[in-house]
Design goal:
Layout: E1 3-7, H1 11-23, E2 27-31, H2 34-43, E3 48-51, H3 60-63, E4 72-76, H4 81-89, E5 94-97, H5 102-119, E6 122-125, E7 128-131, E8 136-139, E9 142-145, H6 148-159, E10 165-166, H7 167-173, H8 183-201, E11 206-209, E12 213-216
Parallel strand pairs: 1-2, 1-3, 3-4, 4-5
Antiparallel strand pairs: 6-7, 7-8, 8-9, 10-12, 11-12
């Protein structure tokens, strides 16, 4: 499930977006000011950001340069063409004018997430950085080698750190890397990942959620 951060001080619009995105299978978090958004981004990295421009604390134009590697779709009542061009040149991947059609927004979100999934090979959570193309993790300046299956499992968990992932979902996801992986061997793969990470600094980064599956520890 992709994670989307909504940055908008209009509670009505924010709630409307949250409801629609949640109904379409996205995990949603919200910030109501530019300053709050920076605090949210320090803890968790979403896959995409929907951002208004007229924000308290830190406006959208000031916030955009501080956001790195995360696609930002600007949703604003500002219609000035020069402003749109400057924002697109300044790092935004798309610009939608309020009022907007929800189906159009969903289509634009889908396009950007599809691009991101095709290009992304580096994933971060807390102090873990996963380099999926190299099958390695960097943790406390220590390189950890993973098997292809371990890498696929950790990538899925890191992409969805705030929600437990079911065992069946994990098995479906890693089927390309390990077609013969079973529920029993899945537990062993996750145990191996936990052991490798824990060996570096003693921290356990993955937890079992009874009756569901596994998730990253928050």
């Amino acid at each position: 499930m992709s994670r989307i951060l909504i940055i908008d001080d209009d509670e009505f619009i924010s709630n409307l977006l949250e409801e629609s995105l949640t109904n379409h299978g996205y995990f949603v978090s919200k910030a109501f000011s530019g300053t709050e958004a920076l605090l949210v981004l320090e803890k968790n990295q979403p896959d995409l950001i929907l951002m208004d421009l007229m924000l308290p604390g830190l406006c959208g134009e000031e916030l955009l340069p501080k956001i790195n590697t995360i696609p930002v779709i600007v949703i604003s009542a500002k219609t000035d063409v020069t402003n749109k061009v400057n924002l697109l040149l300044g790092g935004a991947v798309d610009y939608l004018t309020k009022p907007f059609d929800m189906n159009e927004l969903l289509a634009r979100i889908n396009v950007q997430l599809r691009k991101r999934n095709l290009l992304s090979t580096v994933f971060s959570y807390q102090d873990i950085t996963l380099y999926a193309d190299k099958l390695t993790v960097m943790l406390n300046n220590t390189e950890i080698r993973l098997t292809r299956t371990e890498c696929a499992i950790l990538k899925l968990l890191m992409q969805n750190p705030d929600m437990p992932i079911g065992k069946t979902t994990i098995l479906d996801y890693i089927s390309h890397d390990t077609p013969d992986c079973t529920e029993r061997s899945l537990k062993q793969h996750i145990s191996n990942i936990r052991r490798k990470l824990q060996a570096v600094n003693g921290n356990d980064y993955i937890e079992a959620v009874y009756g569901i599956g596994f998730k990253m520890k928050s």
